[in-house]
Hints:
- By secondary structure, the protein is of the alpha+beta class.
- The chain has helices at 22-35, 107-115, 138-143, 182-192, 212-218, 225-231, 260-263, 275-279, 288-295, 306-311, and strands at 10-16, 43-46, 54-61, 75-84, 86-88, 96-99, 119-123, 132-133, 136-137, 153-166, 169-177, 197-207, 210-211, 237-246, 249-258, 267-270, 335-341, 345-352, 357-365.
- The chain contains 10 helices and 19 strands.
- The longest helix is centred in the N-terminal third of the chain and has 14 residues, at 22-35.
Amino acid sequence: MRETTLLQNFFAIGYKPPNVSSLRFANALKAGLKQIGFPVQKIGFSGTLDPFAHGMLLFGINGYTKLLSHIPKQYKTYKAVLFLGLESKSLDIENIVQIHELQAFHDSAIQNAIKDIQGLVTYKPPKYSAKHINGVRAYELMRKGVDFDIKAITTEIISLKILHYTHPFLSFEICMSEGGYVRSIGAMIAKNLGVHGSLCSLERVQEGQWHYHNICASHKESEQINTIIQKRQNTPTQCLQVPLYMQGIHQNAKVILLNIKNALNYDTIQLTEYAKEAYNGAKFILSPYLCAKIFDDVVYNPCMTQSQNIQEAPLESGYHNKEVCPNNMRQDSISKIMLADFGIHFGIIEVFRNGKVKYILNRIDKC
């Protein structure tokens, strides 16, 4: 398996089982990847899942841990089961106070309970959460019995729909902005019904464009790691089986490898001619042709008037003038962040309309 050492840095999606912390799952995944030949020294993840929850987690391996914040995941989709009548301090199956017996609700009452939970919703996160209160996690303060207040947050609810209701269990699916708390939304639904309610199941099924189950269904797991490495540069995703050892049980997990060009939220531009300058971190200025290509515009000449710039647009270039800047607008104030392919490595750069380039992250190894 000597060839597997070529894959040093990459993104991956794993599926965390319930009743295990995100960190523990990450460490198990790290050990499993090393077992099949991947030289994993460091692993990081974004969007921590509660221990009782299950679902997808985004991972950065080795050098790609620093790129996790650049993966677009503004919206996340969850499936949850709300236990109507379950009173819990943490709004889940931990810290249970009491279970109240309730009469079943009519379907119309259930639909009315979610009717107003749309758009921007402001609420206080659960005190049993990872929010920082004066540098300390809120759940740590709660476990110590410290009294404190927690600031309200605003979450955008893109969609909320009921999946199934078999009293006292109400299943729903929600798509919401990053940083939202499904436990709090479940409590809102219960409150609208005039009762207590807490989540007994929570699954994250999608982050941004990545839907774990859909990707797995579209790929056959590859038993040949070398095949994955060979196809990886041109294929958005690949699946493989990774052995895991958790809670005394040996098991296999489906892990999805992501192509960096598809994972990051930036257009890619080939800049192999600037590879030497970029590798050394030197400043360089892009050619007028590349600037026109990047901004889908004519090359701006500050010596010309706006009308002259429009007339000078080369018809054969394939680019049209969308937004010629007025003479009083600084050309270094208009920019675009891009993933630069320098041939031997990647870089995340900010390109200004006058051709100047600013490094955001540089010398990102290709694999």
